[in-house]
């Protein structure tokens, strides 16, 4: 007991800060949705990555309780999808598909959702406009959604998903249809929400986009999770594929001769402008140590950058098979 006579509660259990999948499978008859998924997703921006049909939407529908697992269990910050009222107080969902009640304006669309929580009229109005402001759609809020562009429909769905201040956001292809300026604003909003300690779980099949926004990624293929974690961490675990490094320097031919002193270097290719090299090495740490020595011995190195420390390369390595090496 504490001095005040109240029992100390301490920090919440770790599970209450995670989205947890425990050996989850979902089949549609004999068709596989996802299979044997085990994940613990922390706060921050998490991207679900994979081509159409890889299982991204099924995983999101499982999180939100729209479909039930064939086997396994799911807990969203300690809450199971079997308790939908409690779940949707802490979770917001924006689907990739449009489904708007006829005749509603953007503000009415967000407001009517908030009324489902039993919130007062005044509070619903306040929360609706706050959400609409966050997605920068105030000027169009009193127009009918039926007249919105694709990008505006995306933003009003996002406004609805954040209006009740959820701790977990599940957003299916939320950047589709956005022009470059609005896309940048939306990504900035995702970062703000993540900085507030929320889960922002985003699906995408545009791999280069994921590199810009993600704290961690979950790579899916044919219903299976093939990798998860930070891009750099996932990449470092793919030992059978050489790491590619781009180097700009004043003496690329001399650099090529030096790097081949290491048996871990499998390729050194001259840039088209003859101003540098593309190196492939199976031991990046050892290679970088050698590079430090070379830089002290007469070769001026202008820049060094990983050539494939991104989601696209990692995904090709993991599922591309022989095609990724052609």
Report the helical percentage.
25-40%
Please count the beta strands (DSSP E, at least 2 residues each): 13
Instruction: Count the domains.
Output: 2
CATH fold type of the largest domain: Rossmann fold
Termini separation comes to: 67 Å
Return the CATH class of the largest domain. Alpha Beta
User: What would you call the shape?
Assistant: elongated
CA-atom Rg in angstroms: 24 Å
Q: Which residues form runs of ≥5 with pLDDT under 50?
A: 1-8, 322-326
Q: Which architecture of the largest domain does the CATH hierarchy give at level 2?
A: 3-Layer(aba) Sandwich
Enumerate how many helices there are, as a single number: 11
**N-to-C order of helices and strands:** EEEHEHEHHHEHEHEEHEHEEHEH
* Estimated share of beta-strand residues: 25-35%
Structural class estimated from helices and strands: alpha/beta
Side-by-side strand order of the widest sheet? 5-6-7-3-8-9
At the fourth level of CATH, the homologous superfamily of the largest domain is: P-loop containing nucleotide triphosphate hydrolases
What does this structure look like?
It is a single chain. With 326 residues, this protein is of the alpha/beta class. The chain has 2 domains: 14-235, Rossmann fold (3-Layer(aba) Sandwich); 242-307, 2-Layer Sandwich (Alpha-Beta Plaits), CATH 3.30.70.920. It contains 11 helices and 13 strands. Strands 5-6-7-3-8-9 form a 6-stranded mixed sheet, with helices on both faces. Helix 3 (106-115) runs parallel beside helix 5 and helix 4 (121-134) crosses helix 5. It is elongated, with a radius of gyration of 24 Å. The model is unreliable at 1-8 and 322-326 (pLDDT under 50).
